[in-house]
Amino acid sequence: xxxxxxxxxxxxxxxxxxxxxxxxxxxxxxxxxxxxxxxxxxxxxxxxxxxxxxxxxxxxxxxxxxxxxxxxxxxxxxxxxxxxxxxxxxxxxxxxxxxxxxxxxxxxxxxxxxxxxxxxxxxxxxxxxxxxxxxxxxxxxxxxxxxxxxxxxxxxxxxxxxxxxxxxxxxxxxxxxxxxxxxxxxxxxxxxxxxxxxxxxxxxxxxxxxxxxxxxxxxxxxxxxxxxxxxxxxxxxxxxxxxxxxxxxxxxxxxxxxxxxxxxxxxxxxxxxxxxxxxxxxxxxxxxxxxxxxxxxxxxxxxxxxxxxxxxxxxxxxxxxxxxxxxxxxxxxxxxxxxxxxxxxx
Length: 346
Known about the structure:
alpha/beta; Rossmann fold
């Protein structure tokens, strides 16, 4: 007979060991440890004491097989190095930890194929998923939502629960700010073509331009990373506009560096507005005017919506939560120059 596991044993303790130590059925021990409310208090305390003495550690995979739940949530982000996602990850982590769940973080590297593939590859490892700025098509996202409990952040697709950060409203604020400074020829520095928020921001710019009767043009697409800012800044100079709104802060920060290299004054020659107000946006030279978003709150809200769904709630559950944004004005925007920056400036 195999000896019971314990503090001095090389073999990890099992449910059967805890049951043998207490003289109770294995099923009773399992219920006490996985669903304490189904066992009376005295029996539960007896079992928990034995489990501690034996250093019993629950096997998550075995527990998932018996309960159908892993107590893990997959959080998929497009680029884990982008500071925008730091807030999302922090918010989801805090909320999941408070609820007793584990977070599985997946970097999809701006790839819809990798995003789709990882969801299927890891499907047995999580109970639900949170997709931040998904690159999937509406059709594919809708199909996935029918198969996997999920919540999308920064994406609105019919039939898919979502947390929407209202950057289009912030774009309208940015346009009003630039127009008030005398800018009449403004460019949008576009992010990835597969980005749903990217299209929403462009549409908001077009709508605002029509209201103010000014011209807007779209440049790009550019990668949503700092290194792409150099090409974006060069495109702005070639276009000859006096102001621009960048897809995100990383692009805008890269543009600021390139303008310094080329001797272009910001905001004297060109005004720049970013988006997201990431960590470091206020440390730039000059500090960046940008759209401030409740990023951590978006992560927490997404977790709350998903866990409510997993708990079986249907009536009264929100399908969409909208979080407001606002324009934070710093030193990268100023009055329009009397003439646009020189296109050929070296």
